[in-house]
Amino acid sequence: MSQIQKSPQPPTELPPEPLTPSAAAPRGRTAGTAWRRDLPASVVVFLLAVPLSLGVALATGAPLQAGLVAAAVGGIIAGLLGGAPLQVTGAATGLLVVTADLVQRYGWRATCLVTILAGLAQLALGALRVARAALAVSPAIVHGMLAGIGVTIAVGQLHVVLGGSPDSSAVDNAAALPDQLAHPHATALLIGAVTVAVLAGWPRLPGRAGRWARLLPAPLAAVLAATAVGMGATVPRVELPSWRLPEPPVLPDVSLAALVTAVLTVTLVASMESLLSAVAVDRLAAERPGTPPGRPRLNRELAAQGLANVVSGLLGGLPVSGGAIRGSANVRAGAATRRATVLHGVWVLLCAGLLAGVLELIPLAALAALVMVVGVRMVSFAHLKHVQRHREFPVYAATLGAVVLFGVLPGVVTGIAVGIFLALRRLTHTRVQVAEEAGCHRVRVSGQLTFLAVPRLTRSLAQVPPGADAVVELCGSFMDHAAYEALQSWATTHRATGGSVTLGGRSGRPLAAPASTHSCRPWTPWRNHHCTRPAPDRTAARHSGSQLLGGVSAFQRHTAPLVREELARLAREGQRPTQLFLTCADSRLVTSMITSSGPGDLFTVRNVGNLMPPPGADASCDSVGAAVEYAVEVLRVDSITVCGHSGCGAMAALLDAAGSPPPSNEATPLARWLRHGRPSLARMARIGRLGRGEVALAERPVADDQERLALVNVRQQLDHLRAHPCVARRMAEGTLTLHGMYFHVAEAQAYLLDERSGRFRAVRADVPAIGV
After folding, report:
1. DSSP 476
2. InterPro entries, alphabetically (predicted)?
């Protein structure tokens, strides 16, 4: 272990753009490599986005060119300004049902106004930096919402595949489906079947030819195949009007409450879909080798999505959002920077202007089948299993059903209400079972033990006969004070009748306090520390060792089972630490906590003042020298760290004795030991009170002489270490390094010594310690 900080955290923001596959490559070569990856990726996403955008526009009842406008605006604006560089923005599939309802109720121009207002709301939310909070919504609600939207999409578009036209209501579409199935349009059904078959089979094409074929996105291949099949048939096809300036949006003739509801619905769904997609795409990109670490800037992404929606609404485009389908295709195609996203928008723009005649060959049934498959895939069985495993299926089912029956916003509200109800039920639902076993009565309490469960608990405890041996097993994770008092009162009364009571959790841990007051950590103070305090019936007399004994007992119960296997390995193999840590014996210095180390990591030497006597100083002080020799010669450690600390009593004693001459014979062992700190005292006197650059803290002035002496002492003890022959030899070989460290107890802040400048620099939480 050559570093004190072993687990630096990754940066919380993305690195500066562009995202390059290798930070060490020369600038010109890196830029060229990125272009070679971005250009083909942009073409792949463009080929995917065109049919998908047309299909979404068709399904909503909007002008077909609105889908292309949304794809171009989303790709260029959100691609340039967004906080998730590899996410691709376009016509929102999650908003398909909402947009279709808005178009049918209020008309297309009013829908554009709702899109603009929703974009402004997203801009405001991005400025308020609430994007992370949006991800706090239960995944069961989000997946239920998307599944409900998917079901509505699939049922509606199935009517188009069968040659009919969908209704605005999912319930009406489902009711009319049997009659539509009885009288299908044969050609439209054939085109839809070909589209679905190609979509399902394209990723499974075998052999080398299949690998080459899969370079073409499956949606484009499906639309091309369906277009070829229906080339000679008379079926409805894409109709793109001539490009002209969009008509200005208009205010719908509805109440303010209805308008606000529509805007909030579009804002909610578009934002959730974009943020979840950004996280998913980032996770997918992180699995790809050569991708720099980082996280999406969600607030920036939300603001960029808002601006894209404003522009799309002004230009007569559909509402936009980030999409996992387009984003994952972008990542898998090898995109390196946001250029791929922006270029895809440019290609869509050029296609809309130059290839309108080609697009008008596409049958509407093919686009409907494409969107229908997208809707079916929004009902993810993987998410369903995940939700079921976490016992949140009722929330998922309620959200899905309410979205299908009543709409997106009522569905989300329903899911939230069911989630709150289930949480309250779990909090208040408690089962108490009493069973007679061999020699004792076992009372098992399942669920959270609150004051609401006290009547049920006392009734069950009354079934235990007086004088019997009883075991009360608590299997929940929470117990309030009322339940704790009820248990303790019953236990005291039962013991008075001659019976015995064992109160414990599922793991057998004895109960000593309400679970809500127990928060044991390795650094929990012993003061008021209940979990290591022996129960009154186990320890008759209070003495100073009871707390220590309780702590050892707690170790045997909780920690020993977790570390036993690792300690057994160390017992077999012997210790192999990589660092010697020389520090003070002060009880406030917990070396394992400061260094995040475990068994076998550190060879630790502690003494008063973290002193390292120089060679030959005194034969009676050989223990520290022996430990250093053993660590360097036998254990072959890689580094030695000398750690001083604030408020050191040894430094205070040295300063107190600085004004008087040293006695010829020190009267006590402590006084004799502290003489090894006098060289540090003399060194501080030589450099003067201001330090003259030899010792200082980089971030703040040295507080006082005691802190200054502690810093000087670290440097002095490092010099003493270098004087030992075994240390000097290993350093000359280049196999051993020395480090200085200072720990300020009140600040909980570690400082590392920079030998070149003589300054101690603070170790930051987000910056790894280099060279330590």
Report:
1. S
2. Carbonic_anhydrase, Carbonic_anhydrase_sf, SLC26A/SulP_dom, SLC26A/SulP_fam
